[in-house]
Amino acid sequence: MTSIMTTSKPITPTRTPSAPGAAQVSLRGVDKEFIRPGRSGETVHALGPIDLDLRRGEFFAVVGPSGCGKSTLLELVAGLSTATRGDVTFEGKPIHNRIPDGVGVVFQEDASFPWLSVRENIAFGLRRIKIDPKERERRIENALAMMGLTSFAHSFPAQLSGGMRQRVCIARTLVTEPRLILLDEPFGALDQQTRLLMGDEVLNLWRKTGATVFLITHALDEAAMLADRIGVMSARPGRLIDIVETGWPRDRDSRIVQEEAFGAITARLWRSLRAESMKAIGKPEVEP
Amino acid sequence: MTPKKRAALWRIALLVGAVGGLEILCLSGHIDRLTMQPPHRIVMDLVALLAGGELNGAIAKTLRNAALAFVIAMVAGVSFAVLLHYLRSLRDMLDPVFATYYAIPMFAFYPLLIVLFGLGDTPQIFIGAMLAVVAVIVNTLNGLDRIPRVLLKTARVNQLSAWDTARLVMLPCAAPHILTGAKLAVAYSLIGIIGAEFIMSTGGMGYEISFAYMNFDNAKMYPLILLILLVSIAINTLLAKWEKILMARRGLS
């Protein structure tokens, strides 16, 4: 296994070093405020300011304390929510509260449609894409095979395990052949062993599709295992306080958790995150 | 034996016991023939009535109008429920009306409906639909309230329009609740149509039952009541089977 490189970046809002124009997704001065429900006009500063570039084809993970705005960040990139200030662009085009073509999202919760079979669920992802029936069938068969669901094509989600249902959701995203895949804690509801195996599958499909993957997770080990770069967020309002480059080879799998460097990356993430996590639960860290 | 099978057996036993008891009471003269026919006689009269065809027109009229009232209630109820689901303030305004709706004596409006729609079948269909529609609205809203947010987000990710989101995600997701509303709507539509025919009509099963009642014609009245019961049970059984399939697919049976 190649050696691990962790960049030592300052604990300040960070801009990635990619050259202008190389970024597939760009966030510039992005802030998000919410109006607090039930209190007239009072706002909550949930996120930002964030400056970030996602490089085409990279695997980028975001970790941060609970409630720091990780999912809000993903929703901004997905076009499910609009930034209060700042700009979010995908392939140079601004995202304005609309899902851009070429973007697929997988959520933490089970988002399979229980009234549709596995095959119908996967085909649902192709509704918005005009392709000929042969190509449609090819994509569905490929997605079924890639996610190991071929023999369950006619089953209903209720007949599958949680991990398999999540694979259905990933397959539904895959058939659209997205250039950017957004994963919002997709393994959050799964047990540890299944999470590791699902991680392998995500790495596999990342390699095969060549898509950029943007993963939101609360699990430091998951981020350390999967990502090329890991953004560490502060407590609310969430800002990027560190970006860790893992230096993993592209053909990695879950066995890298045995590497010494894996521990070093996880330790680095926790060092950056500990004080923020304490803040998030209302116990600011006191120096011994 | 599963608890469900045991309950079904008890249900059948109870029904057989009740019908058997009624048969004995009628045959032994404890219930006189002028009050009620024995159940076996009611079945025989029903078969004779259906075979003779003299009431086929009345039966067809009632079933056709009840079906129309049911369809109107379903289409209007589901559409209005989707609208209310989006318009929170309108829903808040109407919620108390739904809660007290069935306390309103709908048949009291029949004269007004005759003035508005004339003496034809329209006032009866209107009453049937009005009786059924709120059951559909309330149950559909119940289903729509339970749609997981993540499915609606998935609809947005797949760039579905509001119409497609309602058609392809919201309504299928709420289907088991809508079916509960449909089962109630079947009963309310039939009650509405037959009740209206009972009050003021020149045809239909309700009119025939009323006419037979006035003339002590038990050979016609009870078979028609039995027929209504059988139609209602048959439709509800079909809907229940459909509901069972839907629930089984979702792992909820």
Automatic annotation (TrEMBL), chain A:
It comes from the Bacteria. This is Nitrate ABC transporter ATPase. Residues 1-22 are annotated as: Disordered. The keyword ATP-binding applies. Gene3D superfamilies: P-loop containing nucleotide triphosphate hydrolases. Residues 27-260 form the ABC transporter domain. It holds the Pfam family ABC_tran. The lineage of its organism: Bacteria, Pseudomonadati, Pseudomonadota, Alphaproteobacteria, Rhodospirillales. Residues 1-17 have a biased composition (Polar residues).
Automatic annotation (TrEMBL), chain B:
Keywords: Cell membrane, Membrane, Transmembrane, Transmembrane helix, Transport. Residues 59-239 form the ABC transmembrane type-1 domain. It is a multi-pass membrane protein. The chain crosses the membrane at residues 12-31, 66-87, 99-119, 125-144, 184-201, 221-240. It is found in: Cell membrane. One of its GO terms (cellular component) is plasma membrane. Pfam families: BPD_transp_1 (PF00528). PROSITE patterns: ABC_TM1. GO terms for biological process: transmembrane transport. InterPro entries: MetI-like, MetI-like_sf. Belongs to the binding-protein-dependent transport system permease family. This is Nitrate ABC transporter permease.
